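Record minuted for completeness.

…
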Amino acid sequence: MRYNRQRVPKAFETQIPLADHQKAADYTLTRTRFAQYELLLASVLLLIWTLGGGLDLLDRAWRHLELPERTTGVGVMLSALALTALFDLPAALYRTFVIEERFGFNRTTPKVFFSDRLKRGLLLLALGIPLATLVLWLMQTPGGLGWLKVWAAWLGFSLFMTWAYPVFIAPLFNKFRPLDDFELRRRIEALLARNGFSSKGFFVMDGSLRSTHGNAYFTGFAKNKRIVFFDTLLKELEPSEVESVLAHELGHFKCRHMLKRSVLLACLSLVGLACLAWLMEQPWFYLGLGVSQPSAHTAIVLFLMVAPVFGVLLQPALAALSRRQEFEADNFAAEQADAGSLIQALVKLYRGNARTLTPDPLYSAFHDSHPPAALRVAQLAAKIR
């Protein structure tokens, strides 16, 4: 990436100025370097929580209150999550008010920043307390299949949150207004009608309250499906370009990508819970990770802390699957809308969001959920007749 900084790739040299290309390279490098510092900090915190005895100290502090076992467990689990969020606060502040500010993307005020954190904390309590209580109760039921019941409960909770998010949770953080652009609505309605897709409505979100980055997404399911556009996106793109972006997102639904991802995550969570159930019965699991008194709640917290370390092994395969699905969605969009408009939309989004056009191939193969810009544009250009 650094070596390609002095020249815009040929496919984009007439559309993206050198200064914007260099900004994207610098922005990507800055974020990548900071992510490395965050990884180092997370590793240190993990050692403190486990081998350093942090979780054991937290567990003993709650036990000292002599509350019922399940209440103690819920307290340990939620306080561990709260402390983890607190430790992440300096990094979040730096990302928002230093990195994003430096590159001209930040519009978040300190008031909005801390208001968001407070709302998330209250949601954690409102949803986390009953969920953690249910999980501990199910894990402790006799018969050895509590983990399977937890899996079923988790799937139900995930479906509920998918249904509830657009109506009850998202409005806590952003304002949504109906899309009032007649020309754009006409295009969207025609696109959806061609594909037999029904929606609860088209909404514009005040994304500019926090950032200049633009985006669009589908949310909800069943009769609660909504289409949401960031106001920043609508300011950047023409109606035909917005239609093509929406066609890409619709392609994920028509190609059943959301269903496939849900099934994959359900299978991974099933395997994870089976591993957790086995580890809960192993004394070395607790002693090896710094916990002196085995319990269901400490096993859950330890597993949630350690599992991402091994989850890294799945990252390349999951990223490759995501990139393949992005290509499939692009192909669908090229059939349902104008491929040239999608190319123009992508170029504007790459430029406006400062996404690098020349990612490191090895890093991209391991981490990136979207294909490199040059490959996406080349594939779409081949479909223009």
Summary: The chain is about 70% helix and 5% strand. Strands lie at 176-178, 202-205, 216-219, 226-230.
